[in-house]
């Protein structure tokens, strides 16, 4: 990565971390993917029950593979025949892994969901939520974060899942009501009432969508 981008990301991350702290959430900065994985594992005690929503970033840093190979009770919904049972198990898990569709410079997290299993677990249930967030997802403000979530993350995910939505065809949000829409629920996490529940690892890399 270009040295100037590296310096910029390090400085910007500190601003985001201060914003998270003001919202009763804990932020961290990892200089690369390996550091992010090590940091995430340090937040997850061995023996913990761990599950996740659709978090490509957790896969990209090698965290999911490490959890499956380690001494953890990893609830892999892809391995469940009953997907609903796997999703419901998330609410009683020790740790829930997620990413964010966008995060603001002052520490607000924005997520859009189709089935609501991810955003509902972020909001309530698991004892701890660990976010893996690439610096590519940092936006100036809430308006910018919402635009990123709707016009970058949503179209790419719709295409990835092979859905027939207007955004999958145009690459931009059309504010549709398509049966295939994945923009059913919007969650803005602006404050955590429970200290030490939400942890956000900002990674000096471009991760996820």
Distance between the termini: 19 Å
Q: Which architecture does the CATH hierarchy give at level 2?
A: 3-Layer(aba) Sandwich
What's the CATH superfamily, by name? NagB/RpiA/CoA transferase-like
- What would you report as the Rg, rounded to the nearest angstrom? 16 Å
Strand content: 15-25%
Explain what this protein looks like in three dimensions.
The chain is an alpha/beta fold and 209 residues long. It has a single domain, classed as NagB/RpiA/CoA transferase-like (Rossmann fold), CATH 3.40.50.10420. It is built from eight helices and ten strands. Strands 1-10-7-4-2-3 form a six-stranded parallel beta sheet. 42% of the residues are buried.
Features:
single chain; 209 residues; alpha/beta; Rossmann fold; six-stranded parallel β-sheet; 10 strands; globular
Task: Briefly say what this structure is.
By secondary structure, the chain is α/β, with parallel strands linked by helices. It has one domain: Rossmann fold (3-Layer(aba) Sandwich).
């Amino acid at each position: 990565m270009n040295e100037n981008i590296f310096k910029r990301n390090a400085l910007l991350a500190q601003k985001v971390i201060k914003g998270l702290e003001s919202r009763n959430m804990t932020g961290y900065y990892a200089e690369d993917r390996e550091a992010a994985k090590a940091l995430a594992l340090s937040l997850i005690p061995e023996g913990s029950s761990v599950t996740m929503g659709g978090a490509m970033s957790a896969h990209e840093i090698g965290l999911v593979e490490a959890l499956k190979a380690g001494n953890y009770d990893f609830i892999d919904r892809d391995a469940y025949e009953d997907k609903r049972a796997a999703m419901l198990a998330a609410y009683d898990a020790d740790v829930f892994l997620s990413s964010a569709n966008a995060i603001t410079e002052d520490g607000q997290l924005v997520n859009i969901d189709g089935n609501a299993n991810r955003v509902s677990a972020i909001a309530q249930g698991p004892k701890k939520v660990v976010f893996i967030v690439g610096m590519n997802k940092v936006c100036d403000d809430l308006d910018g974060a919402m635009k990123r979530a709707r016009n970058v993350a949503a179209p790419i995910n719709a295409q990835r899942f092979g859905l027939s939505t207007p955004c999958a065809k145009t690459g931009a949000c059309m504010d549709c009501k398509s049966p295939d829409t994945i923009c059913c629920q919007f969650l803005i996490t602006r404050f955590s009432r429970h200290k030490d529940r939400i942890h956000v690892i900002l990674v000096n890399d471009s991760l996820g969508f």
